[in-house]
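Can you please make up a protein's amino acid sequence together with its fold in token form to help me picture the idea?
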Amino acid sequence: MREHEDDLLKKFSQVIVFYENARLAYSFVQDAIEDTMIRGIPTSAIIYGVSGTGKSTLCEHFEKIYGKSSAVEDAGGVEFTTTVINFEIPAEITIKGMARNMLIALGDAAPTGSSEQMTYKLITVLKTAQVQVIFLDEIQRLCYATTKEVRFRALQWLVSLANKLKIAIILVGTEECADLPNYNQAFRRRFQTLIELKEFTFSQAANSDYMGTLKALDEALYSISKLPRGLHLHDPSISAALYLATGGNLEFLRAIIYKALKRRLRSTDNTGLQKEDFLAACEYMNLPTIADLNPFAVPLPDALHAIDQYRIDLLAQKEKERAKIIKAMRP
């Protein structure tokens, strides 16, 4: 029985909902990849947003669509090819360190040589593997004040890598990345597209991104689990409490729903989702909640008032953070 429940939970976890913001991001990245393939001129992009807004999920989806791996044998032996590859910027950023990390990810256990030698080897390996798209994650590490000395060279290196490979490079990171193109004109020309994945704005409108996503997840949840109908994710009290618990962060939102579903599936009651499932799900989670107590214990009018105040405070906070980022990025 437990194995069956685990299968249902896994299936629900794999459900992807493309709300309007995600569909727009998908479209822009797809254009960057396809335009590069057609024109032969690198047209790359930057996907940015706060953690938990679905950036990794979007990249994984593209890997499934464009990623094709195979083994080809020629006179020199067996060569492995892959059209899409995903790297991560190292915590300690240097040109040599970035090239070395990528070579390790490509199967070279102990790459050696100067930064120029490792870059040349990296380009050779990527061409041999017939890579068409590179996703490079955690790019916000180039925005930190401690990386100011290497930032210009790192951006130039990425431009050079795109030019020599003539493939799309998709950079992925947090909201600090929005200002990277302002720092280097050559970088701006190659990375022309900026795509922001945002946390949900609270709305009770049926056609909003937030309610549309909850409805899609609700339909998937009940379809996959075969539970009797109970509470729905888009019910006013549930949707408000979910937002109160998460501030519109998709990752936390899905984690709460997952835990509530898990509790209900393992319950002996033959009922759909109940409020106590959500209460229990939030009890021990370290949530970015905007409430002083369990969000599902907050009356609906109080929850709506707290969400309105949160929206006001968030706008003021974002203005301060953006001014701080711009100041830190100045040469």
About this structure: Residues 201-314 form one domain.
